[in-house]
Amino acid sequence: MRIDLHTHGKLSKNSDFSVDYFTEMVKEAKTSGLEALALTEHFNTRNFYEVYETLDRLYPYNGEYYDADGLRIFPGMEVDIQETGHILLMGQKEHILAVRNGLEQYTAKGSFIPFAELLDLAEAWPLLKIGAHPFRESTPLYQLDRDLLGRLDAFDLNAKDMYQYGIETCRGQVEPFAHSLGKPVTAGSDTHQCLQYGSVFNVLDRPCASVAELKEQILAGSYTIEISSDLPLRVKASVMLKKVMKRLAKLDAARLQQV
User: Fold this and answer.
1) What pLDDT does residue 60 have?
2) In the prediction, which pLDDT does 259 show?
3) Which terminus of the chain has fewer Cβ atoms in its 10 Å neighbourhood, N or C?
4) Cα distances (angstroms) measured from residue 144 to each of 18, 65, 81, 133, 156
5) Residue 55 in contact with residue 93, Cβ under 8 Å?
């Protein structure tokens, strides 16, 4: 099963959740060859709960994942921590929403939850916990307390970082670091825009019907990571298109204010 473990369903944190935009994302994810993805929307995105309320209307949910016209969407969330860094959480929808409820007082920049407290909160449920882009200059994780880092399940090999820093440079940082903590590395496109799907993904030895099964395979090493030869082109095109779309959205908003 081909799965992307770091994806977003919105153009940006400040944009509304669009059914048209998201269904186009689903279509392109399938076109790129993906069979599943973890939807790790930012925990402090505008109207976070609206994302899952809309998915409930769009697709059947079996208690583990949404069936989006054959694409399995596992619930998740990306959380900022006080020390600087991002943590990906994946699990059953009610567990993700329960953690999100516990983060209500920590959504503003400057008041994010401490890493240890987030781990305590997340460990109340059987979630998959991944350290996102641990060597990204703006949100590094690698320098944090190793005992806390060791409570994560894996670390993210991120398409945006491979584009920015180079594929081999990025792998040369993330893989030895994860290995030093006895942790696996998983792949995530970190896409906010559909062109980035397929740039990097995980190929599981067998299909997963739950995050628990997904976590079991990852910890057992029963998967491989595939990096597309056109990753730089996919990410560059996605970044450029995202900028254009955000500018168009601002222009539309300005026009509406003038009416």
Assistant:
1) 98
2) 58
3) C
4) 36, 32, 11, 13, 16
5) no
| Ranges of residues in the chain whose predicted pLDDT is under 70 | 248-259
d(CA 67, CA 126): 21
Written as six digits, the tokens of 131 are 């350290």
d(CA 157, CA 227): 10
Tokens of 36: 């599943």
Comparing CA positions, the residue from 75, 63, 62 lying closest to residue 36 is 75
User: Which residues, other chains included, contact 218 with Cβ-Cβ below 8 Å and sequence gap of 6+?
Assistant: 128, 153, 154, 184, 186, 202
8 Å CB contact between 69 and 35: no
In order of 17, 47, 71, 91, 209, the CA distances from 54 in angstroms are: 8, 11, 16, 18, 22
Q: In residues, how long is the chain?
A: 259
Given this model, what pLDDT does residue 15 score?
A: 86
**How much is the pLDDT for 243?**
76
Is residue 98 classed exposed, middle or buried when 0-12, 13-18 and 19+ CB atoms within 10 A define those classes? middle
Q: pTM value?
A: 0.94
Tokens of 41: 């929307």
The residue type at 128: L
How are beta strands 71-80 and 128-131 bridged, if at all?
unpaired
Domain count, the chain: 1
Name the CA dihedral angle for 248, 251, 255, 256, rounded to a multiple of 10 degrees.
70
Residue numbers of the domain that contains 104: 2-257
* CATH number of residue 86's parent domain: 3.20.20.140
Cα separation, 60 vs 52, whole angstroms: 12
